[in-house]
Design brief:
This protein has 5 helices and 5 strands; from the N terminus they run E-H-H-E-H-E-H-E-E-H. By secondary structure, it is α/β, with parallel strands linked by helices. The chain has a 5-stranded parallel sheet with strand order 2-1-3-4-5, sandwiched between helices. Helix 4 links the parallel strand 3 and strand 4. Helix 3 packs parallel to helix 4.
């Protein structure tokens, strides 16, 4: 079983309530069962915090070999600490945004964490999380095949 952690940053505990014109009407708690049903062979864990240090603590925990889907919220645009944390991890991280941050305020156009992530997905609503999971699973499958191919050649 692959293990992927979904981590949401500040104010994302208010999904479904906060600015539904931007973020939609569904909460993360209502969307998680949809994701888990779609990926029954993947252990999808979820964590949310409004505190930068708690996000870092969670990412530094060992045991997310399948990767991390990270929506750092506003910390995306300000946090060198999150970038440093991501760079220290031994698992892939995908940056995710529900809205298309490129169509929003200028200050949201720059990500401090993108240079440390394997990819960025934005603008597809809550489906951005599914797309990030798809990307992680495809990357993990390619890596496993690469290891198998190269192990067979050495043997």
């Amino acid at each position: 079983t692959k293990k992927i952690m979904i981590i949401n940053g500040p104010n994302l505990n208010l999904l479904g309530v906060r600015e539904p014109g931007i973020y939609g009407n569904a909460s993360m708690e209502s969307y998680l069962p949809v994701l888990r049903a779609r990926y029954p062979d993947v252990q999808l864990d979820y964590y949310q915090s409004n505190v930068e240090g708690f996000l870092i603590d969670k990412m530094q925990e060992v045991g997310f070999p399948g990767g991390i889907v990270l929506n750092a919220g506003a910390y995306t645009h300000t946090s060198i600490a999150l970038q440093d944390c991501i760079r220290s991890l031994h698992c892939p991280v995908v940056e995710v945004h529900i809205s298309n941050v490129g169509q929003r305020e200028e200050f949201r156009h720059h990500s401090m964490i993108a240079p440390a992530c394997i990819g960025v997905i934005a603008g597809f609503g809550l489906d951005s999380y599914r797309l990030a999971i798809e990307g992680l699973l495809a990357m993990n499958d390619r890596l496993e095949q690469y290891i198998l191919d190269h192990t067979d050649q050495e043997g």
